[in-house]
Amino acid sequence: MIQFKDVSVTYEGDEGKVEAVQKLSLHIHKGEIFGIVGASGAGKSTLLRTINLLERPTEGRIYINNQDITDLKGEELRLLRQKIGMIFQHFNLIQRKTVFDNIAFPMVAAGTSKEEIKKRVTKLLHLVGLSDKSNAFPAQLSGGQKQRVGIARALANETEILLCDEPTSALDLETTKSILNLLKEINQKLGITIVIITHEMDVVKSICDRVAVMNEGYLLEAGDVYDVFVNPKDAFTKQLIEHTFHLEFPPQIFNDFKGRVLKIVYKGKAATEPLLSEVSKRYNIKLNIVHGKIEYIGDRPVGILVVELEGDEGEVQLAVDYINERTALTEEVLYAN
Ligand SMILES: Nc1ncnc2c1ncn2[C@@H]1O[C@H](COP(=O)(O)OP(=O)(O)O)[C@@H](O)[C@H]1O
Ligand SMILES: [Mg+2]
After folding, report:
1. Is the pLDDT of residue 182 over 70?
2. Is 242 part of a structural domain of the chain?
3. Does 83 lie in the same domain as 148?
4. CA 104, CA 98: separation in Å to the nearest integer?
5. How many other C-beta atoms can be found within 10 angstroms of the C-beta atom of residue 247?
6. Closest ligand to 218 CA?
């Protein structure tokens, strides 16, 4: 649905050129929730803003529903933007306007009739759970409620795509969850394609179908969230994921290990217990479980185990190979990260 072809965005800054996005190609499918992650300054916001041409690519083309939008101007650009809603980290509501008027704003701009506006705002207020806040002003709302207004406003016209730039970064954990649930509901109920930028892998883990990882303007990898989490290709991605799996160990612990330490990632809930007991039976080694847990990527479980294998070098190697062949990912843990 949204296709980037060799897109670059270069800014002319005071200190020379900034290459915010570099030769990036990517395809976001209709109806999915697509995450874009990366550190601050990676180019995420710039990339997102090219979708509604708030930034224009310096090079490359962008297609939406197979239409090349890169050079759209005037009325055509206005119509494109109507179909694309956007929400922000700091909500960007109009402080002087009521909740009702904030949500109505894009419809007024599009020339929608008063009657129709009333009907749609009422529906949207219901959708985001703010029916009783119609006459409130932004200052009277909590952060979560403000973001709900932002979401309602972004859906005011016949929205097909919702762009979210760090929508939960200013919210606490509980509120984040409720906003993510609302986005998921909107995606499922209304079939709206959602592109969400975040620096939190937990956000990706809980609602995204696919994800792209960016660093210094480049796309490092993109794919199914489950696959990227279970088997990240790039070192940078690995680091991001380790962090969300909370697999950092205190460095002292590594002094106590006598054998080889492996991190094993496996798909699904099953399989490791039988696998490890099989390894103990087959090979003459001592096997200590250092750490083990199950994480959920969306609703699919992924298991993570850290084990120490002690014994004869050759025998341990055979055991490592055996485990390696039967799990999604097996890695030596050499030092504390
Ligand atoms: N309007 C601008 N003018 C000049 N440089 C910019 C502008 N917007 C962003 N940048 C620079 O482009 C790079 C990418 O920024 P951005 O897309 O905001 O990254 P992210 O959203 O991943 O933090 C950064 O180095 C940033 O300083
Ligand atoms: Mg940003």
Report:
1. yes
2. no
3. yes
4. 10
5. 16
6. 1
